[in-house]
Specification:
Number of helices: 22
Shape: globular
Structural class: mainly alpha
Distance between the termini: 60 Å
Order of helices and strands: HEHHHHHHHEEHHHEHHHHHHHHHHH
């Protein structure tokens, strides 16, 4: 006759399970797919809320109520990135102290609120401040989404679902132009705005665009209400009963069974290490950061930081200006990009406040084109994933940088619209190299400093996006050709550096 202990062992029950074993026993099902959707919307919101301003600027110019100068456009384009950079460390520390779920819920709700409020901006500085605050709060999603998702998965399923979550970032590149095209396509031609008397705002299409974009963090915050705190975080807080209760709920959702075979979870050495880090976060942060700037990693840190800075400056910095430039290219064909810029700036400087709205028109084709560009970038992401192991990270990185750099140098010397469009497309493809560069970081740095190395180098990249956007705002009017050549030179140098990265 079997004892109770033998029956429990045969049925899957045992006295203690590791955290990874406990996660594995919850299975994979409805809960994890809902979690994937929610975290995917988080990452999608990060991309949409930082890049959508590039699609807003042509609409603002069309209305011409805010009367943006080139300097205003540069600051406005960089405002959300500035918010992301300024708050990255803050949200990381706050999440370690209070929990990832709480931070993500606060950030998603505040992102929605300030994104919605930005649609009521009565002047350019109100718009800049609200977009900065959007970036400030959306940074909390960028910093915690992958960690939150990963802590609900065992070793067998974690990498797979983290990769699936990244697909939503590619979808974000098609969402903005698709929404912009819909607004222009279905607006009433004789009623382009609603006047709100109590605040004196002409509520026009670009304001509606912000509202549509804010729908993503709104739904995301609603979804987060139905998700629990990370069991790993609660385990480190010694809230054992809550951890078992959450895992039991996940098990029941995935299997429709109530017989979850876990009642006790042991804290392994890896979790104990994380617990010690959580108690001395600032000290541990310093201890982990210092090795990046000492031998043998200091040269790699400098090289990878330069590469990440350049690709963000060129791709994100210039991509924010792409819809506006494409709009002018359609309106003034058979001219180089720099000739068009000179002509449009001169025309706007000579126009009065009463005629300025008529000096700018919007062609719906720019949104169709940028939508197709987003699809192309999605294909590039998948292509890179297919060939990266066969071709090699460094070789693939160098190839894209060379193609992007040469395309940038050629842009100001062509007058054919389709040739310029093709060159701009290849030039902006350097942004797809961010994931390859991150893979190189993972290979170069050891586990104990891998996360902090990614964090610091990505922050430098986002600073590059800010610098790139402001750089374009000042250079495009005074030294347009030199601007494209400088971007091209930076990317070619990045290609050379990529070739000499450590294996």
């Amino acid at each position: 006759m079997k004892t109770d202990e033998e029956e429990n062992r045969n049925s899957g029950f045992k006295e203690f399970h590791t955290y990874n074993q406990a996660l594995e026993l919850t299975g994979l099902g409805k809960f994890h797919y809902f979690l994937l959707l929610t975290c995917g919307l988080c990452l999608m919101s990060v991309i949409v809320e930082t890049l959508n301003i590039g699609f807003i600027i042509p609409l603002i110019d069309f209305e011409c109520v805010l009367k943006l100068t080139l300097a205003d456009k540069g600051i406005l384009s960089a405002s959300a990135f500035a918010g992301v950079v300024s708050s990255s460390y803050f949200w990381g520390f706050f999440a370690d102290v209070t929990g990832r779920h709480k931070v993500m819920l606060i950030c998603s709700m505040c992102t929605f609120i300030f994104s919605f409020l930005s649609s009521f901006s009565i002047n350019v500085w109100m718009l800049i401040v609200t977009r900065f605050l959007v970036g400030f709060f959306v940074s909390g999603l960028a910093a915690n989404t992958y960690a939150y998702l990963g802590e609900f998965h065992c070793d067998k399923t974690r990498a797979k679902h983290l990769n699936f979550c990244g697909v939503f970032m590619a979808l974000a590149l098609t969402f903005c132009p698709a929404m912009g095209w819909m607004i222009l396509k279905f607006r009433h031609p004789e009623s382009s705005f609603i006047h709100l008397e109590f605040i004196g705002v002409h509520y026009s299409f670009w304001r509606l665009f912000f509202v549509i974009c804010s729908v993503l963090p709104f739904f995301m915050s609603m979804f987060l209400w139905f998700l629990p705190e990370s069991p790993k975080f609660l385990l480190l807080q010694k809230k054992h009963d809550q951890v078992v209760k959450i895992l039991h709920t996940i098990y029941r959702s995935n299997t429709r069974s109530h017989m979850y075979p876990v009642s006790n979870i042991e804290i392994d050495e890896q979790l104990l290490g994380s617990q010690r880090e959580g108690k001395n976060f600032l000290k541990q942060l310093w201890i982990q950061t210092v090795p990046l700037f000492k031998a043998p990693y200091h040269i790699s840190t400098i090289k990878l930081s330069f590469v990440m800075f350049c690709l963000f400056a060129a791709s994100s910095g210039f991509f924010l200006w792409t819809p506006d430039i494409l709009n002018q290219m359609i309106e003034y064909p058979n001219n180089t990009v720099c000739e068009i810029v000179d002509f449009v700036i001169g025309k706007r400087q000579n126009s009065t406040a009463n005629t300025c709205s008529s000096s700018v028109s919007i062609n719906e084709g720019i949104y169709e084109i940028t939508f197709m560009m987003g699809l192309f970038f999605s294909i590039v992401y998948f292509f890179n994933g297919l060939v990266i192991n066969k071709f090699g990270k460094k070789n693939l990185l160098a190839l894209w940088f060379i193609l992007s750099g040469l395309s940038s140098i050629q842009v100001p010397f062509n007058k054919n619209y389709y040739v310029i469009l093709f060159l701009l497309l290849i030039f902006l493809t350097c942004g797809c190299c961010g994931s390859i560069t991150s893979a190189c970081i993972v290979d170069i740095y050891p586990t104990n400093i891998r996360a902090i190395s990614l964090c610091i180098i990505l922050i430098i990249g986002r600073i590059g996006a800010i610098v790139g956007s402001v750089f374009v705002s000042f250079m495009i009017a005074t030294s347009c050709t030199a601007m494209f050549q400088i971007f091209g030179g930076m990317l070619i140098i990045s290609a050379i550096i990529s070739c000499v990265l450590p294996d």
